[in-house]
Amino acid sequence: MSKVHSSFILSVVFHIFTDLRLTCQGTYLTSTARSHAINNNFHEGAVIGDFNGEFWGVYTLHQVIILFLIHKTARVILSVSFNKKLLRIQS
To answer: pLDDT of 47-76, one tens digit each?
Structure first.
């Protein structure tokens, strides 16, 4: 099996589990928001909207931080790899 093929399969499996995780989190979030609204006599829709807004804000911030870290790590790996190739060429 080629690296591209196995990377594709791993990506699909990761995507499926990520979707399941987000679905479970969304269900839990909505249930928690609804219970909070009922217990405190708040408007249900407004509370669910606030909870969802906070969730997606944190989720997006998490994605930005992870992408930044991946970008930094990839740059370090590429620069180390490039430097090793230069040393081999110069030898």
So the answer is: 999 988 888 888 888 888 887 877 777 776
The count of other CB atoms within 10 Å of the CB of residue 5 is 9
pTM: 0.54
Nearest CA among 50, 51, 53, 55 for reference residue 22: 55
What CA–CA distance (Å, rounded) separates 87 from 81?
Answer: 10
User: At residue 14, what is the residue type?
Assistant: F
C-alpha Rg value of the chain to the nearest Å: 22
C-alpha 58/C-alpha 60 separation (Å) is 5
